[in-house]
Design a protein that fits this description.
Distance between the termini: 168 Å
Largest sheet: none
Helix content: over 70%
Shape: rod-shaped
Number of helices: 3
Length: 165
């Protein structure tokens, strides 16, 4: 070994001093620079891992929320269809009700008009009968050339009316 020391011109004391200096500098750098840097990097690694885990949880919650949202939208659509169907059914029932009520009112108006017409007809027939009776009485007077009393007149009128009918 001495030959190596002589070839490279190494001084053992100086070499040992450099090793001690290197160890001291390495210890200082490790203690003040590397160790805090390692702890900061470990904390960052933990934060990143936590952020990734939180992102995965948030992504799962987001997918669940989207599914719930879609289900609620579908349910709201179904309810809207039901409401529209119910409204259409109620409208149809109301329409039928109004039509039936209108028919009843029209039927009632027609019946009232029929009654008025029948009453008018009866009144007109009564007037016609009284005029016909007067005409018959006058024609009988001329035919018989004598005035017939009330009883004879009435019986003759009734006979004539029966013949007309």
């Amino acid at each position: 070994m001495e030959s190596i020391i002589e070839i490279f011109h190494l001084n053992l004391k100086l070499f040992l001093a450099q090793i001690v200096n290197f160890a001291i500098i390495f210890g200082i750098i490790y203690y003040f620079a590397v160790k805090p840097l390692i702890s900061v990097m470990q904390e960052r690694t933990k934060k990143i891992e936590k952020s990734l885990a939180d992102a995965a949880v948030i992504e799962k919650k987001l997918s669940l929320t989207e599914k719930e949202y879609q289900q609620k939208i579908d349910q709201a659509g179904k309810e809207a269809v039901k409401i529209i169907d119910n409204a259409n059914e109620l409208a149809e029932n109301k329409k039928k009700e109004i039509v039936a009520k209108a028919r009843d009112e029209v039927g009632q108006i027609i019946n009232n008009e029929k009654q008025l017409l029948l009453a008018e007809k009866a009144k007109t027939l009564k007037e016609i009968k009284s005029e016909v009776a007067g005409l018959i009485a006058m024609s009988l007077e001329k035919i018989l050339e004598e005035k017939v009393d009330y009883k004879k007149e009435k019986s003759l009128i009734e006979k004539m009316i029966k013949k007309i009918r």
